[in-house]
């Protein structure tokens, strides 16, 4: 019996010696916080024409970080019926988008771009695209198909059509005469061509930047409105001068469009690819991430915009190019 007591005492002492080590291991953190990421889930990958589909966008981020979603979701060919945002956990935020489709076939829900603001860092996340199959609405088992009826005969009276045919010819002839007169008139007055804008896109952009510089937005502390305006001016310049629909695109979509676009005009923008990205992202930080730079930084945005417009503007026409364009207009 004393030997059993000694063994029990030894085991108790050994357990007491190991307990602090076990407790210390349990107190250590399990793992570090995961990197910010975005995942997308669809409640189904096949739907009928006109049905609704729910997509869930889950953003994992550090606790306390702010997630900035797009102001609008460009999800063509889908149509957005409802959007809801909610925090799922301190380190996870969800956006639920209800969409419908009125096109048949294998459609693709485009990627969604968000910003995760964890002061002082801002991280850009882009979700993957989701393939959705849209099928037509089938018939019930009890429905039957009816026979196709033949076409109805239409009584024709060609004599009644002559006045309309003469009117159509008169309209077409008048339009051709007016077009030729306009071409000659523009050529005689030294115009560059029948479709030349009244003010070139680069001149309109520089004038708009001058007006923005004279505005009191910066002095009144309206920094966000200033950056929205300067970004809008340059995006309008890309749209008018290069047929790049930048006004309705995110910065990432604009840069992707520039990479895929072709033609001599767009090449001028592609040469300034990195400077354009830096300029647009600087404006996005103020528009979406609540970054508030000072007056000096606002002045720098104006300088960047002017430099980009001047660097991508078309070269001034020479006498040879002016004569060539005038000759083409006269020949037309």
Helix/strand/pairing class, anyone?
alpha+beta
Beta content:
15-25%
The radius of gyration is 33 Å
3D shape: flat
Give the overall average pLDDT.
77
Helix content: 40-55%
Distance between the termini: 121 Å
How is the largest sheet built, in terms of strand order?
1-3-6-5
- Unreliable runs, pLDDT <50, ≥5 residues? 11-32, 187-196
- Describe the sheet with the most strands: 4 strands, antiparallel
N-to-C order of helices and strands: HEEEEEEEEEEHHHHHHHH
For the secondary structure, the number of strands is 10
In DSSP terms (H or I, runs of 4 or more residues), the helix count works out at 9
Describe the secondary-structure layout.
Blueprint: H1 2-27, E1 37-42, E2 46-48, E3 52-60, E4 66-68, E5 78-89, E6 92-101, E7 105-109, E8 113-118, E9 121-126, E10 130-135, H2 158-188, H3 201-214, H4 223-242, H5 251-260, H6 264-271, H7 273-288, H8 295-312, H9 319-331
Parallel strand pairs: 2-10
Antiparallel strand pairs: 1-3, 3-6, 4-8, 5-6, 7-10, 8-9
Describe this structure in words.
The structure is a single chain. This protein is α+β, with helices and mostly antiparallel strands. Among the domains are: 37-135, Immunoglobulin-like, CATH 2.60.40; 201-312. 47% of the residues lie in helices and 20% in strands. The protein has helices at 2-27, 158-188, 201-214, 223-242, 251-260, 264-271, 273-288, 295-312, 319-331, and strands at residues 37-42, 46-48, 52-60, 66-68, 78-89, 92-101, 105-109, 113-118, 121-126, 130-135. The chain has a four-stranded antiparallel sheet with strand order 1-3-6-5, with no helix packed on it. A three-stranded mixed sheet has the order 2-10-7, with no helix packed on it. The chain has a three-stranded antiparallel sheet with strand order 4-8-9, with no helix packed on it. A hairpin with a 2-residue loop joins β5 (78-89) and β6 (92-101). α3 (201-214) runs antiparallel to α4. The protein is flat. The N and C termini lie far apart (121 Å).
């Amino acid at each position: 019996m004393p030997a059993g007591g000694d063994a029990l005492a030894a085991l108790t002492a050994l357990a007491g010696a190991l307990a602090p080590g076990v407790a210390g291991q349990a107190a250590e953190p399990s793992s570090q916080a995961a990197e910010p990421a975005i995942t997308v889930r669809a409640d189904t990958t096949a739907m009928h024409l006109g049905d609704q589909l729910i997509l869930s966008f889950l953003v994992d981020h550090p606790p306390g970080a702010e997630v900035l979603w797009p102001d609008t979701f460009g999800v063509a060919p889908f149509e957005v019926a409802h959007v809801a945002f909610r925090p799922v956990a301190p380190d996870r935020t969800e956006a639920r988008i209800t969409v419908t489709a009125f096109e048949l076939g294998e459609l693709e829900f485009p990627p969604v771009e968000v910003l995760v603001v964890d002061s002082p860092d801002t991280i850009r996340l882009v979700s993957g695209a989701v393939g959705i199959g849209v099928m037509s609405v089938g018939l019930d088992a009890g429905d039957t198909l009816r026979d196709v009826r033949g076409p109805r005969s239409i009584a024709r009276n060609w004599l009644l059509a002559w006045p309309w045919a003469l009117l159509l010819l008169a309209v077409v002839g008048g339009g051709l005469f007016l077009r030729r007169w306009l071409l000659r008139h523009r050529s005689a007055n030294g115009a560059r061509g029948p479709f030349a804008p009244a003010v070139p896109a680069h001149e309109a952009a520089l004038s708009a930047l001058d007006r923005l510089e004279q505005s009191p937005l910066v002095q009144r502390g309206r920094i966000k409105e200033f950056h929205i305006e300067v970004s809008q001016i340059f995006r309008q310049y890309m749209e008018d001068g290069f047929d790049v629909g930048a006004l309705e695109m995110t910065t990432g979509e604009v840069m992707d469009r520039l990479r895929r676009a072709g033609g001599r005009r767009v090449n001028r923008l592609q040469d300034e690819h990195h400077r354009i990205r830096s300029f647009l992202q600087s404006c996005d930080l103020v528009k979406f991430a609540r970054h508030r730079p000072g007056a000096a930084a606002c002045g720098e945005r104006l300088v960047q915009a002017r430099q980009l417009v001047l660097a991508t503007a078309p070269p001034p026409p020479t006498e040879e190019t002016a004569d060539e364009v005038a000759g083409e207009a006269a020949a037309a």
